[in-house]
Amino acid sequence: MQVTFISNNHRMNIPFVFGGDILIHCGDFYAKGEQDPDLKLLNEWYSNQQFRHEFFIPGENDDPVLLDQVNGGGKLTEATLLNGKLVDVDGLRVFGASFFSWQDNEPYGLQTLDEVEALTNSIPRGLDILATHVPSFGVLDESIPDENLGFLTLRCRVQKSRPYVHAFGHDTGASGYERFEDTHCYNVAQNWDQSLWPMPTTLNIEPHCNQSFLPTETVVHS
User: How crowded is residue 208: how many other Cβ atoms within 10 Å of its Cβ?
Assistant: First the structure.
C-alpha cells in the first residue's frame, strides 16, 4: 500500500497534485499567524489530492485547525483529523498526534507534564504507522547544533511501543531517514534550503509487515 507523507509545506506546494492509497500530512500546512476560519484553503488543498484516504495532524502553526478542534470540529471536511486518535485503514494501524508543547504554541500546546504523559501513554503498541508533528528527542531533530526539537517522553514511548514507521516533521532542516532501534523514522518536513519545491515521501507499507523488511528500499519520490 502506498502511503505518502508531507509536512511543513506552509501552503507553498498548493499547485501540486499527488495520488495514491493514503495521504498523511504531519502538520504546519499554514504559515505562522495565518487565518482561515472556515478551513477553506486546507479543504481545497485536500480536495485536489487523489488518495483513497487522507489524514491531517496539526502542527503548532495550524491555529485554524486547532481552534476548530477546540470548538468541536466539523470544518475539516476533506480529510480526517488525527490528533490523539487511532484508525484502521485497510488493515494498517495508524495513530496520529500533534505532540507539541506550549512553548511552540501557548494556546493549544501541551501545558503540563501530566498532559505530556497522558498523550504519550495513549500511543498503542502494534502500530504500522505512528505519525506526529514533533520528532522523538535525538531522532532527526537537531538541524541547529546542540538544540534538539524533539520530545524525550515520545522517544521513550517509541522505544516501548515499537511502531514500524514513525513519520513526523517540525524540524525543517533535519529531513531524512534514520532507524531508531526497531522503528524506521522519517522526518518528512519540506526543506526549503535544499529545493524550492521539495517532494513528499512515499513508502510502500503492508499491514503487520515483516520487521526485517526495510522501507528505505521502497521509497518512492513522487
Answer: 11
Residues in Cβ contact with 198 at an 8 Å cutoff, skipping those fewer than 6 apart: 13, 175, 190, 191, 192
Question: CB of 81 within 8 A of CB of 65?
Answer: yes
pTM score, two decimals? 0.90
Of 57, 55, 59, nearest to 22 by C-alpha is: 55
CATH class of domain segment(s) 2-218: alpha beta
Q: Which one-letter DSSP state was computed for residue 92?
A: E
Beta bridge partners of 7: 189
CA-to-CA distance for 149 and 216, rounded, in angstroms? 24
Distance CA 51, CA 160 (A): 32
CA distance 191 to 2: 22
Q: In angstroms, rounded to a whole number, what is the distance separating the alpha carbons of residues 34 and 13? A: 16
Task: Work out the burial of residue 74: count CB atoms within 10 Å of its CB; fewer than 13 is exposed, 13-18 middle, 19 or more buried.
Answer: exposed
The model's pLDDT over 70-128, given as tens digits with 9 standing for 90+, comes to: 999 899 999 999 999 999 999 999 999 999 999 899 999 999 989 999 999 999 999 99
Written as nine digits, the cell of 92 is 494498517
pLDDT tens, residue by residue, 145-162: 778 888 899 999 999 999
Give the start-to-end residue ranges of the domains of the chain. Answer: 2-218
Please name every residue paired with 22 in a beta bridge, in sequence order, or none if there are none: 3, 53
